[in-house]
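Field reference: sequence -> structure
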Amino acid sequence: MNTMLRSWHEFLEGEDGPTAVEYAMMLALIIVVCIAILGTLGHNMHQTFDRVWDGIRGHG
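Structure field:
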């Protein structure tokens, strides 16, 4: 158990710990932005397909 705690302490005290946290925060921000973009695009695509479908039904 002490070995595991010591390795965690060394990881957090070294340069790799804060860097890993920074990368995780950047990744989380990128994921949130991607979800927001995909949500907007999905809504716009749904509206476009609805208009196309309405046009097809109107001519059929």
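Note: The CA atoms of residues 5 and 11 lie 10 Å apart.
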